[in-house]
Amino acid sequence: MSRPFASVRARATLAATLVVAVALVAAGTAVLLSLRSNLLGEAGTQAERSAREVATGLAFAKPYDDLPLDVDDRPVQVVDEEGRLVAASEDLERISGTGVDAVKPQPAATARDGGDDDDDDDAADDDDDHGESLEPGEIGARTTVSDGSATIDGDTEDYRFAAVPVETEDRGRLTVYAGAPLSAEHGAVNTALTVMLIGFPVLLAVVAWVTWLVTRRALRPVEGIRREMAAITASEDLARRVPVPDTHDEVARLASTTNETLTALESSVERQRRFVADASHELRSPIASLRTQLEVAAAHPELLDLGGAVEDTVRLQRLAADLLLLARLDAGERPADARVDLAALAREAAEGRRGVRVRAEEDVTVAGSRGQLERVLANLLDNAQRHARSAVEVSVRRDEGPHGAGGGGQTAVVAVADDGEGVPAADRERIFERFVRLDAARSRDDGGAGLGLAIARDVAVRHGGTLTVRDTPAGGALFELRLPGA
């Protein structure tokens, strides 16, 4: 029985782990890219610093041998306008990424003749090619960065190269290429990646473990509710209730709602049990009487009380019809949506009854089941005639006030009043319960089964109305049926 909860825990753990995994991968990727970008930028800055240091020496007309070409074992190249290598680091064995693969200086270019107009035009063209016009002794502000590799004294590494142009007095336009090693960048990125590859699975395992424990703790009250519900189902003891945790969260509200459902179910089952017991008791009397009369008639036909047998059969038929209607009402049967004229219905119900007078306004209509509303009026008239001394009055009217279940609009009111002794205030709700008789000494033949008023109120409620009772000014009982107008 714990498998559904285990699956919930597994799904929650898997979901949390996947979310954290995606977040970690995204964050790790961003960190690695940012770290690599920063380290590459730092390497580019170092390469540019080295290139400008050499370019400064060239701007001051230092000889190639006096330039800082072998500082920190970093590769440096000095290239003239013709693309010839004129100076390089002493131990440089191989280089790529600068556009000049030579590692040994070639013969230096001759100095320019300042009076040659053709040379001036060529220099101008070269300035245009480099995209930056420089004066003699001036270092270019623009730096070109590229990646490559170099072998120095037998060690091969990746480098970031910076190219800085410089205009000299006697050697023309030169370009200095200086490299900064990327070993620190590679090492830092690899170290970070290794840490992530080791740490991320451990962190995900911790997240999964914590989520599993937290989910188990969160579902523990649910498991308690499930066990108690299983015990209630097995024992059929609807008086038991599930435990309500003190967390004031969704689980606590679930437990409270479950207990409310159990309370309603217990009340419904108890009401059903009483209904079945009372129905059985009520049915036993007419059935036993009818059986006795038939057995006597079988033995002594001349003693057959045909009238009594018919009366018991009619009582049995009416009781069965009442029980069937109550069963349909309890099952939630919705009334029909036909228009019913209550004035005409009241006159029909009062027709043939002695001492019943009807006062009705015209065109008082409601929407509902004509048959059920007819049963309500018949039951109210039967009850009134049973307790009246001499007269029963039925009135039908419209009430424009905000009455009834609808809370507003026109309301149809049917009032049935008798001149009897009335209903005590303490019993005005109890009389609408099923199988209730206020007069215990009254015979069943005179008092019925105690279902008429219960049926009348149930039908009224199903039609969106109310049925209440109070005293008349003369002291009798006044039953008032209020229904939403059509």
Mean pLDDT: 83
Give the strand order, joined by hyphens, for the main sheet: 2-1-6-5-4-3
Q: Estimate what percentage of residues fall within beta strands.
A: 15-25%
Instruction: List the helices and strands in order.
Output: HEEEHEEEHHHEHEEHEEHHEE
The unreliable regions are: 109-130, 403-407, 440-446
Distance between the termini: 53 Å
In short:
This protein is an alpha+beta fold and 486 residues long. It contains 9 helices and 13 strands.
Description:
By secondary structure, the chain is of the alpha+beta class. The protein has three domains: 1-227, no CATH class; 238-333, Helix Hairpins, CATH 1.10.287; 336-484, Histidine kinase-like ATPase, C-terminal domain (Heat Shock Protein 90, 2-Layer Sandwich). It has nine helices and 13 strands. It has helices at residues 3-59, 117-130, 183-235, 250-299, 306-330, 342-350, 370-387, 444-447, 452-462, and strands at 76-79, 85-88, 92-96, 144-152, 155-167, 173-181, 338-341, 356-360, 365-368, 392-399, 411-418, 466-471, 477-484. The protein has a six-stranded antiparallel beta sheet. A hairpin with a 5-residue loop joins β1 and β2 (85-88). The longest helix is centred in the N-terminal third of the chain and has 57 residues, at 3-59.
